[in-house]
Inverse folding.
């Protein structure tokens, strides 16, 4: 079984990326799967158009993957752009892609609604994502809920291509975990860099504590019962707490007499248990960027070799050989 996923280098990684996607990556890597994980630098060009910034973002995400436990001995780990053939496959898929399929893509519509002037890259983005997945014969794509539609587009394109050219491409499936499909941000909307509502993975304790203590809550008086399921603090606490601790806080909410300051403080402590080892490893790796670059180059070589196999099949199927 082949697993593949990617993350855009468009800013700092946050706990939405971790619980929605990266936690699955690490688990799958440590099971019996053949894993490919990459940094989607071609995708980031749709929004990051400062070359120094793009380079810095790629290094930031590379550190992030390694700090949460991606092991280059077990997974093929690389920047997307080290496999330029992916843009060639994008073209082949584009030629079987109906315009309507892309016009219906929510991520494109959302960005346009947010006031971003759409470039063609942004519109065409899901075809590049399909090529990312298909070029490694991927079976499973671990992602958060917001990527579901893109994986459906990928499946559609693989099936359309196969209908025309025969059984050439592997049709992948998304792996989305019910409890962590959409991690809420500090304001209760989906956690996202573009909403500025994130808890970052590697930011030190001090600023993280400030953010947690400022999470908006309702104005129920301290002595009254509160609804844990309507509270962002409780939703975030569930990510870090074991079952017994979750039950304890559920009871504290519903029986009343609990102030939000108390549960926020506990959320901060619990988050440190998960995030402190990531922060330490991130700081450690940052001191050896040459190692990180070597890892990416080695991963690039392995990824190119795997992509070549599929591209030869594709070229031959369409009549370019
Ligand atoms: P990106 O960089 O926006 O996000 C990376 C991963 O994090 C997940 N995620 C979340 N999950 C739950 N709750 C949240 N609040 C949350 N925020 C982010 C995303 O679902 C994603 O899994 N287009 C992709 C990158 C990409 C890709 C691919 C992914 C390019 N090619 C091929 C898979 C396969 C993206 O922008 O993800």
């Amino acid at each position: 079984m082949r697993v593949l996923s990617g993350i855009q280098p468009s800013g700092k990684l946050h706990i939405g990326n971790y619980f929605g996607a990266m936690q699955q990556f690490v688990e799958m890597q440590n099971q019996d799967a053949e894993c490919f994980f990459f940094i989607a630098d071609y995708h980031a060009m749709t929004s990051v158009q400062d070359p120094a910034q793009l380079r810095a973002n790629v290094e930031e995400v590379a550190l992030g993957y390694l700090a949460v436990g991606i092991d280059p001995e077990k997974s093929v780990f690389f920047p997307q752009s080290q496999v330029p053939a992916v843009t060639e496959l994008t073209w082949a898929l584009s030629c079987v892609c109906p315009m309507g399929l892309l016009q219906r893509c929510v991520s494109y519509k959302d960005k346009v609604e947010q006031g971003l002037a759409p470039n063609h890259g942004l519109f065409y983005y899901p075809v590049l994502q399909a090529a990312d997945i298909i070029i490694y014969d991927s079976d499973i794509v671990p992602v958060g809920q917001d990527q579901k539609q893109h994986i459906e587009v990928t499946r559609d394109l693989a099936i359309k291509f196969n209908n025309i050219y025969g059984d050439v491409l592997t049709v992948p499936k998304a792996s989305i975990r019910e409890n962590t499909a959409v991690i809420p941000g500090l304001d209760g909307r989906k956690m996202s860099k573009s909403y500025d509502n994130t808890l970052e993975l590697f930011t030190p304790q001090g600023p993280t504590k400030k953010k947690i203590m400022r999470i908006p809550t309702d104005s129920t008086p301290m002595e009254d019962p509160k609804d844990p399921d309507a509270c962002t603090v409780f939703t975030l606490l569930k990510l870090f707490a074991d079952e017994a601790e979750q039950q304890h806080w559920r009871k504290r909410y519903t029986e009343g007499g609990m102030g939000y300051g108390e549960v926020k403080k506990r959320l901060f402590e619990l988050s440190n248990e998960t995030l402190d080892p990531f922060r330490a490893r991130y700081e450690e790796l940052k001191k050896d960027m040459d190692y990180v670059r070597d890892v990416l180059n080695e991963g690039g070589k392995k990824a190119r070799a795997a992509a070549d196999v599929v591209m030869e099949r594709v070229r031959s199927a369409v009549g370019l050989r």
DSSP finds 13 helices and five strands in the chain. The pocket of tryptophanyl-5'AMP is lined by residues 5-8, 16-17, 20-21, 40, 43, 129, 132-133, 141, 143-144, 146-147, 150, 182-183, 190-192 (CB under 6 Å). The mean pLDDT is 96. The CA atoms of residues 142 and 157 lie 19 Å apart.
